[in-house]
């Protein structure tokens, strides 16, 4: 180490050129030491490639690597190769003869600099080389294109020599102004980090040839007036302009760059957190010091000026660590400091618990040994970190917790920093929001989400052997759970071990194993199924289905996907996992044979074979979610949630349905595929409809409205009819599943609903008739009546409907608006089945009442009363009967009057012919089913009074 005095150049007192030369020599001494260290870590062929790069940029020779044309920019400023290097070049091609450049021949390559981890403690065999090719600002577009082509050819040649090289063209004049159009390192986030990238360049770059940085010669205390200082150096010829290149200063770093750098590192940290944590925390340190940021490049320059030239102390990674250590100790954050130490140790990747190669300790090894000794790390901790390639679930989970805490803390710090100042930075709330969603998708816990535990922590956490157990819930709680244990354990052993993972349901546990790579093709599985019906065949198929539906690794998330709400991409529906729907028959070794093969109403017992469903969904944010459905409405709940999750626009998810239970698995899959396919098609085609499904003896009506699918579960036919009779705000189509209401009249009636049409259906069975009506909104009304003949059955209903239409039309304007659609009334007879023909419908003409048969007119006016009650006033052939006169005996009085009008006081039913609900139902909201319901209720009271009179 040099032991000369510290240098403090003062421009006002004059600068000695010898002092400047001494400063430059110090930087070059450190540079030489770093370059030597870099070369030590390279193979012979890699060393040759690195040594030859300056010469290959200096000359154009047709037989040397990188040749494009004789006019390609070449000539490295102030560079002259030595004889040893020329001999290396002649080994590539014997015809090469070097001709020194004479006089003022152009030298458009201003400088070559090596970026990256080479020459640092973190250099590894696979480390790549980022080369900055600084060129003259006046190169035209064609020259730049040829120079870029030369770089590409040299990269390809370096690859043939066993090294990865990336060349980046840099215009120093534009760069100093913060202008650039391309990435400048293979780890560069773009144009949002100009000053932070410059900071990294000044403290890490290794000069390979050409002009040296002018920044070297400007003391740190002169950084705020960098331009004036440089102008003085050049104008007074303390230095020659053709010996230096100027990339700018670091007097001030815009705060927006801290946000940009943090976002970039957080983005990378999702996949490789260990690599990003160091840079993330350094950005936090810088941001915490804003606006007076003592960046590491300034500290590096201060050390050179102070003649502190120890290569270990100036190592870029050691300098970063020391700065972070200082920051964290000052804040008392020991846990974060330990994480930083682990990240640095893993980055250096020298396994101190094992003997080094060839028993020779490199300088990196020795330096890391000193560090870990200072940290008081024990041999056990070193061995644990050195075995990272063999880490399994427990170690990965522990490390993940620390890393996720750090990434989450960094995001919160970044968000707070972004809100704390008015930064007209290069990043927007949109960018911050996208990053937040990336972190949320990667690390946030939520119900049903499968946690990804290995974001680049260990290369492979697959277990050689696992034991899967269904065991009782702890603490005497009802039910059971599934547990996964490492190793192959028998029925007694597993109780003495702590499981790797527990889950209430098997599908979630298997999805967790698949997503995290805990199970692979080589994993042996021991199964203790408990009281479930799970077998090894089903378990194998379940794992295979997960692997087929969600192949790993998952594709990267596109930013466009994060700008929208997450949507399902792949859906795997697993039916009856570990459940045999016909277990009672399997135990008896009985196989049912039946013509009723519908899996939702199987055999004469009408068994529902779909008992449980597990929906595994991969969404557009790469979140894997599992939803469990069981109970009597499991299938409908699952279908509802699936339909509601479908995106309104864009591609629909791929749906796979699998079942591996012992009985009727294919039948079950086929039936559920049919159901999901038909419901989805109805939703997409109509956008709003109802869908009727029958499961066993129960009925389910799905209301299919995009994003708002709901379903009603109805225990029997009576409940179904009541539900279908509810009013609808507008016409609502009803689609029947092909197995619903088999052998019932409603299976013929319900599909015939039409808008703007009242449809009457009747069926005669001996002395009873059943009337059914589908109104203009497709609401259903049913009534059973005594039957005498079709005329007496249908004529009263026809008269009522006609009066209803008359009242409705009378309330509509005649002018100034679009005329309302006239409702049609259609009649159908349900014809009973015969040996030659099934039950069917036949259209009938409306009944026509003969003029010679006048009917008895019964009109009712309904008005609202207190406490949501109504008053009814009846008019029998225009004679008024009201509660004001008769009170509770209203209907008895009407019955006496009607009986008095009949010959022999016959007690056959009386029908209401006209009904006014204008005070009860707001105009425009009344539909035919409202009137029919009131009609039925009023007629029941009236006819009961007739029977009692």
Automatic annotation (TrEMBL):
Lineage: superkingdom: Bacteria
A GO molecular function assigned to this protein is: adenylate cyclase activity
Q: Which residues form a coiled coil?
A: none
Pfam families named among the record's database cross-references: Adenyl_cycl_N, Adenylate_cycl
Q: Where is the signal peptide?
A: none
Please name the InterPro entries in this protein's record. Answer: Adenylate_cyclase_1, Adenylate_cyclase_1_N
The keyword Lyase appears for this protein: yes
Q: Answer yes or no on keyword Transcription regulation.
A: no
Name of the protein in question: Class I adenylate cyclase
Q: Which organism is it from?
A: Metapseudomonas boanensis
